[in-house]
Structure formats: C-alpha cells, structure tokens
User: Fold this.
Amino acid sequence: MPIYEYRCENCESKTSVFVRTVSSPVDAACSSCGSKEMTRLITSFGISKTVSDVHEAFSNPNSSDYYSDPRNIGRWTEEKFANMGMEIPSSVRNMIDSARDGEMPGAAKDLQPNVNEI
Ligand SMILES: [Zn+2]
Assistant:
C-alpha cells in the first residue's frame, strides 16, 4: 500500500497519508494545523526485502538488466526529481505506477534472466 508524504505549506509539518491505490485521489490535510495547503513529497512505497535486494543487484541504470525488472521502472526518474527537490508530474507518476502495477510483461517477477520484451 503506497504511503504519500505531504508537507504543510502553512506550518511545514509532514503528514503521511495511506492510500488504497496509487490512482486514488488523496485528500490530504495537515495533522498539525488542519491546513489543506499540502505539497506532496517523494513517495515511499512499502518495499519488500526482495525488492531492495533487486535494487542492489541492478542498481546501475546503465545496465541492460536494470529495466528488466518492472520495479525498477521510474526509479531513476524519481531520484532525478528528488535530487532537484521537485514533485514528479502526475502524468509521469501515473505512468510509473501503472508500469509497476503490472502493465508490463510479468515474467520479470520471477527474475528470469532473458526478459527483453520491455
Ligand atoms: Zn500545518
């Protein structure tokens, strides 16, 4: 289940919001002051140990194996935006999320070495 983090524009507090699906609209309100002037921060997904293992194994985006795992899709983009302190545009966000949600060939789930269909 994704967790969205928001920063309050009013008091700078951070609020975490659980959402059911990545495409759900989120009605975030500050947990400190109740303001709805919230800026979304970089999303942290609940990442399993397996996935972090994968990320370690395929941490080099220049490797052709890197993108054979759907869970790596968009990681580079996310890091780019994070480095710039920017929010990912929702169109990009949705693309990444749906790709990770399996709108890609599913064989990579099993980490088969010969997946090149992406
Ligand atoms: Zn606030």
In short: The domain at 1-46 is CATH 2.20.28 (Rubrerythrin, domain 2). The pocket of zinc ion is lined by residues 8, 10-11, 13, 30, 32-33, 35 (CB under 6 Å).
